[in-house]
Amino acid sequence: MAQQYNPYENVCTIVTNTAKMLGYTQNDYEPILHPERELKVSVPVMMDNGEVKVFEGYRVQHSTSRGPAKGGIRYHHNVDLNEVKALAAWMTFKCALVNIPYGGGKGGVVCNPDELSENELRSLTRRFTAMIAPIIGPDTDIPAPDVGTNAQVMSWIMDTYSMLKGHCVPGIVTGKPIPVGGALGRGEATGRGVMLTICNTLKNLGIPKEQASVAVQGMGNVGGVTAKLCAQEGMKVIAVSDVSGGVYAPEGLDIASIRFYLSERGRLLKDYQEDGVQHITNEELLELPCDVLVPAALENQINASNADRIQARIIVEGANGPTTLEADDLLNQKGIVVVPDILANAGGVIVSYFEWVQNIQSVSWSEEHVNEQLKEILDNAFNALWALSHEKRVPLRTGAYLIAVKRVIEAKKLRGIWP
Ligand code: NAD
């Protein structure tokens, strides 16, 4: 089932339905059903054992109608072109929804970064960067971290691109370490945005956050920070998981202790031991009774096969595309409030935008200023979406696409078709 799932088809369905609801003609929306550019590259790497291995990589620019393409680079063994196309399109609509001046792009390399040495990872990153260099640039397409990549990988991308250009180009990539032009607050921005979205949703539903229980799937950059900040806000984080499985404590987990345990490379939650903590599977985590469920790992986690067993009152999508369209319908019928990915995890790209603005202007903002600006943009986007969804009596995902698709099509129409 997972292999047949094509997330790009889901994107096209939702965009087509939304454009029709908005009264657009096929001439208006047809262009945004097709990514502007798709580049496939072969990336040879000299492995530590002297063997040359060739990895497959992609960079897709879905849209540049509202600004340069923007989106992360994923290192994962399941990366394929349809996944990268979907991830690129979600970036287009995410940037439009929160109204930052970017289009959408995404990249990926089919590999398992956990099995590569640091030397192999650096060689892979440098060669991949060189292969996609003809189409990326601070004014054209700006990569960032995603699953399996991090600030160190962004630093190697920045260095490689700068060496090719012959001068330092910090604005080529965001999510960099602070000493090479990274933004204060970027490391935690996506998780902070998820936490702020959870707080906004609880507030609007009249649920005190101190009484809210939260389950988080994925303990990486997004899930780990979400769990930490939710616990700091007084919520009870009852379950978290990684690729190896989850841990559960109905009275609440010690998130600081779990994050400290996971901070050593190679450690997995299946080996975490603590009094009162039970081990559960990822499937069981998704089906726990809780107020807020945060899928923050990969796509297609909540699908037609498990949606009817979801017991959460609210789902806040930390990951991109964790819920299939079929599952979304079932969740809506059950009255579960689903806050869509293109709003819930937009904190990352918002602070990436702040990083890029600082890089191209050679200025630096305080972390306090970054966090304030992030909250302002997210609160405004959340309030506009909540109001529209209630006015139109549509689920939040439909409302989000009504806003985003309109902005992208209007930009495209204003620019016209060249030549
Ligand atoms: P990451 O690589 O830092 O962490 C991924 C986490 O998911 C890890 O804990 C991993 O063990 C776990 N995981 C992997 N496969 C799993 C599986 N099959 N079942 C359960 N858990 C699994 O990645 P990340 O940057 O935290 O990204 C997570 C999601 O958030 C992705 O969908 C990504 O596209 C999205 N996202 C990331 C950012 C960002 O800034 N990093 C921004 C927006 C959206």
Order of helical and strand elements: HHEEEHEHEHHEHEEHEHEEHEHHHH
Instruction: Give the distance, in angstroms, between the N- and C-terminal Cα atoms.
Output: 43 Å
What is the 3D shape? globular
According to DSSP, the number of beta strands is: 12
Q: For the record, what CATH class of the largest domain applies?
A: Alpha Beta
Number of domains: 2
Please summarize the sheet with the most strands: 7 strands, mixed
Query: What order do the strands of the largest sheet run in, or round the barrel if closed?
Result: 9-8-7-6-10-11-12
Name the beta content range: 15-25%
Query: What name goes with the CATH superfamily of the largest domain?
Result: NAD(P)-binding Rossmann-like Domain
Structural class of the secondary elements?
alpha/beta
Which kinds of small molecule does this entry bind, naming each only once? nicotinamide-adenine-dinucleotide
Low-confidence stretches: none
Give an overview in words.
The protein is α/β, with parallel strands linked by helices and 419 residues long. It folds into two domains: 139 residues, Leucine Dehydrogenase, chain A, domain 1 (Rossmann fold); 156 residues, NAD(P)-binding Rossmann-like Domain (Rossmann fold). Helix 6 crosses helix 7. The longest helix is centred in the last third of the chain and has 26 residues. The model has no long low-confidence stretch (mean pLDDT 97). Nicotinamide-adenine-dinucleotide binds next to helix 7 and strand 7.
